[in-house]
Amino acid sequence: MPAANAAIWYMADGYDPAARGINGRRVAGEGFLQGFFAHGDVTEFVCLAHSQPDHAAFAELAKTYGVTRPLRHVRLDAPKAMAPVDVVSYPGPLPPQECWRRMPFGATAWAVTGITHTTATQRVVQSFFDLRSAPQMPWDANICTSTAVQASLRRLMELAEEHLALRFPGAILPTRPLLPVIPLGVNCDAHQRDPASGAALRARLGIDPADVVAVCISRLTPDEKFDPLPLFLAMELAAAEVKAKGGGRLHLILCGQFREEVWSGVFARAAVQLMPSCGYHLLDGGKADERKATLSAGDMFVFPVDNVQETFGLAPVEAMAAGLPVVASDWDGMKDTVTPDTGFRIPTEMPRGGLADYLSFRHFGGTDGYLQYLGQLSAMTRIDVAALSRAIATLGIDPALRAKMGQAAQDRARRFFDWAAVIPQLQALWGEQSAMLHHARSRGTGQATAPRSAATIPVFPAPDQMFAAYPSAPPPKDRRLVAVPKHEQSGPVELFDLRGYANRRRLIDDPVRIETILAAFRSAGPQGLTEAEAVAATGLHPAIVARATLWLLKYHLLTEVP
């Protein structure tokens, strides 16, 4: 019997780095879909999306990855159609709005699974606070990609709960969502080294076969990933030690992209000044063949992250899959991925309590932007340069150790981080959520889980709830309406075009159907029709007729019978 399934909440921004720009979140999303298509133990793949173009993009991705199992598309505004699947997989942190969106169908209608990527933004932090007052249920889950991130989210929820307990004394807070630790995955086979590609790159860059190459694949920005200067300092110190022990020249290959061109000059000038003994090479990380060549040419992978923007660190796992030993900062996800047999974790420090409060407060208050907040915090986050240097030098002078650690890294990547190992963990979580749902349903629907009107969602109620005091009066249902003579007005089709409704790609209704409703009123003659009589005459749903009559009244195609 197949394991649990989940409907994939699809939007290109979460899964398509080629179209939307390369970053860890999109690369991870793309990798997840590829891994799920390859290793998911399901009978069908279900896509939940806003629009037909999103469904078409999902289908195209499935075709690209060779999917032959059935695909089923479900509109986001008709989510009950995803049954019997009763878990939704969302490509970001568990969003409060998804809990509110479920409210009209009942809290046991389905479960939602989110996943952490960047958690440092004000929007994400706010969303976890809002989650505690949203109709979030214990069968919802937010996957934490590392134990460090799990601890961070628990602290956020503790702080939210402390505030809510003070604000609403005696209130009983709902159970938190599940916070399982499940890592991001990689396709290990796709990251196997290509010796010919690596040799060609070394030759192209003028790197001697006896030289030692440290490589890094990353977004190249001190604000959002890592400050390169400590790495350059460590490389220069290591170069002297490697040379003293008869080793080759050290080189650093950075394969990535500069979000802002100013950083290209900063990196280049700092490399020349701080590590003059080392080779410095820059490759375009937007090109898959350059990323492959980088891993194939390297002797070790360096990842000295000092930024809270990071939460997992996918690139070191890809390097491990390629058989490279890793030298990474002892930071968030790398604490889980890089072990002593696969590389070195370099000690880090952050400001102690009281030293950085002002950074959070300035950013929260809008004085500093997000990048300013990240950059200032990074400036006070230490990575031990001496320890970093020793690790690079140790690997630089010992090819046997590099080979031993590289093999251990490759074995670990395949055992724990290949999608073949990660997808079953995700399906086990979905199964747990589904079981919790079924148990809740078996106990009957209580007040907390019963369906509630979409009109009264407190974070964005229906217009008649929110703006009831705006108009003169609500429209009476029983009034009789009569068609205005044809010669006084254009028809619905002409008015739709004249008004340019199609510019927003969202119509209140099909103008041809509104013409049908107007025709019923015309046929009734001077006595007109009530809405109920128009429903009977057209056979259309009462809500459709009611909305159409308001539109027809707006443009004086109908008017009240005196």
Topology:
Layout: E1 7-9, H1 12-15, H2 17-20, H3 24-39, E2 45-49, H4 52-64, E3 71-75, E4 87-89, H5 96-102, E5 111-115, H6 122-131, E6 141-143, H7 147-167, H8 195-204, E7 212-219, H9 228-244, E8 250-257, H10 262-274, E9 279-284, H11 288-297, E10 300-303, H12 314-321, E11 326-329, H13 334-337, E12 343-346, E13 348-349, H14 357-364, H15 370-379, E14 382-383, H16 385-396, H17 399-417, H18 419-442, H19 463-466, E15 481-483, H20 492-499, H21 511-524, H22 531-538, H23 542-554, E16 558-560
Parallel strand pairs: 1-2, 1-4, 2-3, 4-5, 5-6, 7-8, 7-10, 8-9, 10-11, 11-12
Antiparallel strand pairs: 13-14, 15-16
User: Could you say how many structural domains there are in total?
Assistant: 3
Name of the CATH architecture of the largest domain: 3-Layer(aba) Sandwich
Q: Which sequence of strands runs across the widest sheet?
A: 3-2-1-4-5-6
Number of strands: 16
